[in-house]
Amino acid sequence: MSSVLVTGGAGFIGSNLCERLLACEYEVISLDNFNTVYSPSIKRQNIIKAESNPHYLSIEGDILDTGLLTELFNSFAIDTVVHLAALAGVRRSISNPLEYVDVDIKGTVNVLELSVRNKVKKFIFASSSSVYGKGPRPFSEQHTADLQLSPYAASKASGESFCKTYNALYGIPIICLRFFTVYGPRQRPEMAIHKFTRLINDSRHIEIFGDGLSSRDYTYIDDITDGIISAINFDCNFEIFNLGSSNPVSLNRLTDIIGKSLGKPVYRRYMPYNPGDARHTLADILKAGTLLGYNPKTGICEGIMKFAEWYLRYV
Ligand code: NAD
Predict the structure, then answer these.
(1) What are the φ/ψ torsions at residue 205 (nearest 5 degrees)?
(2) pLDDT per position in the chain (315 positions), as tens?
(3) How far away, in angstroms, is 132 Cα from ligand 1 center?
């Protein structure tokens, strides 16, 4: 059985990924510090299903703790590292930039170091569409922005840069995956779809930053976990892939779809744009389609319906 270490394995993407990996018969170790950016009890709930599987192990710990990582790598033969642990979110990074430098840059380098020393066969880095900034659309892998719009985006660009350096120095095979606004069950409570669902369901006003015409390439979680698993199995030296849906949706349309799926009216309040937010995102997924066989299957109406069902049942 091939073994995968998932850092950030109790988070939104991580916990969904661990379940998919277990279903595909991988041996899975999750490392997560259950930080308080949002409730740790949500993350403990996220892993309950995986914990019933004998091929899953959850370790509570920090990616900055070199001693713990050394012990972990000494105790288990790890074939692949999927490095998801990070502080996510653009707006918070503007008020807490140094935390992002610590976790998203230093933490990434720490996990890279240990992966090289322990001869990991593949390192997958969770990057983000935010590295494209205001670049030309559709965003394609060779056009990373010169100007990063937030400390979060800068930390992801820096993480990619370290990945490239470690690959060149030590030959460790690395894939950077640029995720485009991921949504679905367990989405972080502060992310737009989750927040709008909560407010619309409670018949409260939602705040839209800008005119509502800004758009995002929302990507359903199952398509992202499919893409990660394809990347684990893809033989290469160093590659960057977009994982998006290539189907952008405006904020006005998104909130209409959420309202419809909940059977509730939508009360909008328009606010000034937020600095750091890209106005539009759109993934060019040709490369991922051609090389990874990546083929996102869940459209926005179906995906929002699934999210709303999960929200009404579990939150
Ligand atoms: P999340 O916050 O739900 O998951 C991240 C997990 O990492 C959390 O469980 C957290 O406790 C853990 N973590 C944070 N700091 C840690 C540390 N120092 N040591 C150990 N664990 C730590 O976020 P998510 O939405 O699941 O994002 C996962 C990854 O994907 C992140 O790297 C994020 O930047 C990236 N990403 C996410 C999206 C998205 O739309 N969700 C888009 C682009 C990129």
Answers:
(1) -70, 145
(2) 899 999 999 999 999 999 999 999 999 999 999 999 999 999 999 999 999 999 999 999 999 999 999 999 999 999 999 999 999 999 999 999 999 999 999 999 999 999 999 999 999 999 999 999 999 999 999 999 999 999 999 999 999 999 999 999 999 999 999 999 999 999 999 999 999 999 999 999 999 999 999 999 999 999 999 999 999 999 999 999 999 999 999 999 999 999 999 999 999 999 999 888 889 999 999 999 999 999 999 999 999 999 999 999 999
(3) 19
* Of 187, 183, 192, 305, nearest in space to 245 by CA: 183
Residue ranges covered by each domain of the chain: 3-182+221-245+282-297
Instruction: Tell me the C-alpha to C-alpha distance, in Å, between residue 212 and each of 95, 101, 134, 269, 272.
Output: 24, 31, 18, 10, 11
Query: Which residue(s) pair with 205 in the sheet?
Result: 267
Residue showing tokens 């009216």: 265
Which residues lie closer than 8 Å to 66 by C-beta, 6 or more apart?
110, 113, 114
Tell me: ipTM over 0.95. Answer: yes
CA of 18 from ligand 1 middle (Å) equals 14
Whole-angstrom Cα distance, residue 188 to residue 180? 14
Pocket test for ligand 1, best of 84, 87, 100, 149 (most atoms within 8 A of CB): 84
Atom 17 in ligand 1: residue holding the nearest Cα: 62
| C-alpha span between 145 and 129 (Å, rounded) | 10
Torsion region of 6: left, alpha or beta (phi above 0 gives left; psi -120 to 50 gives alpha) = beta
CATH topology of domain 3-182+221-245+282-297: Rossmann fold (3.40.50)
